[in-house]
Structures are given as structure tokens and as C-alpha cells.
Amino acid sequence: MPRIDRRSFLTSGLAAAAIWRPLGSARAENFRTDPFSLGVGSGSPKADSVVLWTRLILDDASAATSADPFAPVPKQVAGPIDVEWMVAEDEAFSKPVRSGLYRAVPEFAHSLHVEVKGLQPGRWYFYRFRSGNAQSPIGRTRTAPEGVDGFRFAFASCQQYEQGFYSAYGDMAKKDLDLVVHLGDYIYERTYGAGLVRRHGAGVPSMLYEFRDRYALYKSDPELQAAHAAFPWLAAWDDHEVTNNYATDRAPDAPNPAEFLARRRAAYQAWFEHMPVHPDLAAGFDALRIFGHHRFGSLLGLTLLDTRQYRSPQLETSASDDRPERTMLGPAQEEWLARTLGASQAKWNIIAQQTLLSERDTRAGPATGYNLDGWDGYRAARSRLLDAVQISKAANPIVIGGDLHAFYAADVKRDFSDEKAAPIATEFVGGSITSDSPSEASLAAALAENPHLRFASDKHGYAIMRLNDRSAEVDFIGVADRKQRNSPASVFQSFAVSDGIAGVNRL
Ligand SMILES: [Fe+2]
Predict the structure, then answer these.
(1) pLDDT digits (tens, 9 = 90+) for 233-266
(2) Domain spanning 13-142 has what CATH number?
(3) Ligand 1 centroid vs 405 CA: distance in angstroms?
(4) 381 C-alpha to ligand 1 centroid (Å)
(5) pTM, whole model, 2 decimals?
């Protein structure tokens, strides 16, 4: 793969004129600092379209506080700004295929969500943006294939900025992938843990501008930018994009649901503004439908779920009554999932959600301990999901998740207490990119206590899944030291799932 260029200002007007068509009546800005400092990204790939993303950062504040008393008064750039985008078949942009203008508006933090249509399936494309005297770095993206005999994607989650560097993303960006799936905890709302390597430099966000600033901080990381620039992404959130352990309109740090929903609306809007998701999501942020089905030829159907927005409040204790009406997905998403799986003709059906679906008793011996923020706190809902998987007869169901800050591989049972039962699906949870992991001892206890949990690791990193006609292979990739910049990463465990036979096979 060609190297992705770092950001650069236009230096040659002649070269630029050859590449970009005239801006015409579009408003151009003379930027004093690089407005593309958050990088570029793409997402929601379909066979004939993809969404391009960037967000302009306008540094009028630093200009206003310039130490040079003779510096010109900063230009007011808070209004709409026209940005030209271009898609080409090659990195030199000698074969342009689509281009256009997009008006970035302050109401959406000058973010761009450009849906580019009319593309060819299963192809690499290069893209970039320009506005005034500024030009973005070059991004690379790939449309979904039609028929296909191989597909590779990475999945990642949990990237607390203060707890480590993004070496995992630096490694991911160099891999040969068709897609990246982010399963949540892209930002964290507050400081956790000790031994921090960098700081948020701000408190817990509740206002829109505070969430925007948090995303801008995370997205200033060059390795995260490299992973966005290299592949199209699909993204779902978990809790920390709003606040820890929230459920629908309740949160431990929010006594007033109405106030919390205002905070949630701000958080959802900021999430939209910083993710390469479809522009139609901007219709409203009181609720945001992010769950969806993504098809990659005949090989892969990927259902991306939202386990946060619609869930019932957490149980008080493990012994609390898990009434059947309690829900994790909400009735509409549940019904949609059953219908979507039932209609899927794909060879592999990935159910991408936020956490571990399989049961996990964390206490040794006859006593039990469950994570009530996970599916173990929503047992009736889990049973309905497993019923839906079975009834749908969707081929080769594989569940992927994050949230636990540990890697897991599991045989998904219809009844987890039945050790002899054959698995009905296979599950892989990716470790955290940086967020603090549980102790090795607690993982060993979970493995000993739950025979269907086949593997666990407290390493930090991400996972890659490779699909073909015969098997799905999964690599767990760990970084040597998340507290070091550019720490090397390597595959530390691989698995295979055979076509037609659910269950983990350790390689
Ligand atoms: Fe997390």
C-alpha cells in the first residue's frame, strides 16, 4: 500500500490548478493554521458509495492571542465555509472520478459528511479536501465488494487517551484491511486510573462545545488519524461517549433524567460530527439510529447494534428480578435484528455489539458475580437475541464486542450451564486500545468458572478477522507497552471458525 501523505498546505498554485477545478463563486478562506489538523476519514462503505469525513478546525483563538502586537486582526471564520472534495482512482489524483463542493457550517462544527455515489464495487479510492489555501491529507477508502472470496476487517474499542498511546492504531494502519469496525468508547468523559501518559486538560463534558473539544483532542492523535485515513470505518458508541454506565435516560452521575438527556443530545451530536457516518443522521440528536446492516458481497453481512440508547436501567444486584420486558436493544431494534438476520443470505453473519454476549461468572466457587452493565444484567434480552439467531438460520453467526478491556474468545451456548451443548455461535471480544485492563487473576478465574469462555488475555490492542468460503480466522494483536509511543504490536493468539460449525478453534 502506498504511504498516506501527512497533511500539507498547498505550496504550488500551478500544481493545484491542474488538480482542482476552479472554485467559482465558492467562498475561500485564508487560513492562518491548518484547518485539517484532525485528519480525514471515510465510512459506511456500500458497493457504490462511501461517506467522506473531515472537520475544519478554525484557530482564531490562537491568532487573537498572538504574541506579535503587529499581527493582523484575525479574520472571522465562524460562518459557513465551502470545501472542495475530490475522489480519484489513484493517489496522484491523475484519474479523478468524483468531486464537488460541500458547505461546512458552524451548526455542525464545520464537519463534513460527503456521501459519494456512483462508485465501483470492491475498489480502492483516494480522496482529499481543499479550502482556500489549505489542503487536507490524502485518505484512502474502499467500497464494499459485490461477490467476493476474501474480506479482512479490524475491530477495536476503548481508547482512553490518558492511559496510553495509540500504537495499536499505528500498527493497524499498516495492515491490509478492507474495513475497521469501532465498537465504542472512542472517547472517555473523565479521567480514570493512574500512571497517565497524557491529559485531557479539561473536566467532564456536558455542553456541546465540551464534547467537541474532547473529540478534537482524541482525533489530534497521528496514529488514530492514520488508521482513519487508511480504511473505511463503521462506528458504534458505548457508554463513555456520553457518561459511564448510562442506560437510555439514566446515568449514575445524573440525578435528573431531563438534564441528562440534554447532555446526551450534545454527546450524540458531537459523536456524529466526528464520525464518518451518513449525513442523514444529522436530522436530530434526541435519538440517533446508529444500528444498521452492512453487506459486503455474498461473504459477509454485518449487523451493527446499539446496546446503550434503548436499554432498561441496570439491575441493583445480581439477585434482582430480570423481568422479561427488560431490554438491551429496545423492541424496535430487536424486531429489526430478527428480521435482518432472517433475510440475510451472507455466508458469515457478524453481530457487532459493544460487550461480551456470553455469560461470565467472575466469582470462583458456588458464589456468583456478574457484570450488570453487560448482557449478564439483561438475561431475558440475551435469550431473545439467541432465539432470534437460531430461528433466523443465518449462516455462521459470529458475535464481536469490546468494553471489557480484555480479549475473549467464547463458544456461545443457548444454555451456558449446559457444558455438553454444542455452540450456536462463536464470539470474539477485542481488548482495549489503551484503557486499563482487569487483573490476570480475574481473567483466570473467569476462564476456570465458565468453560464456554475458551481464551482471555489482559493485553491491549485490537483484533483482525479474515473471512473466506471455508473459514473465519481471527488474530488477537497486542502492543508491547501501551505507555510507550510507537510500541511494537504483534499477533499473540489466532483462532479459526469453520464454515458450518460454530465454536472457537485455537490455532
Ligand atoms: Fe471502555
Answers:
(1) 999 999 999 999 999 999 999 999 999 999 999 9
(2) 2.60.40.380
(3) 6
(4) 22
(5) 0.93
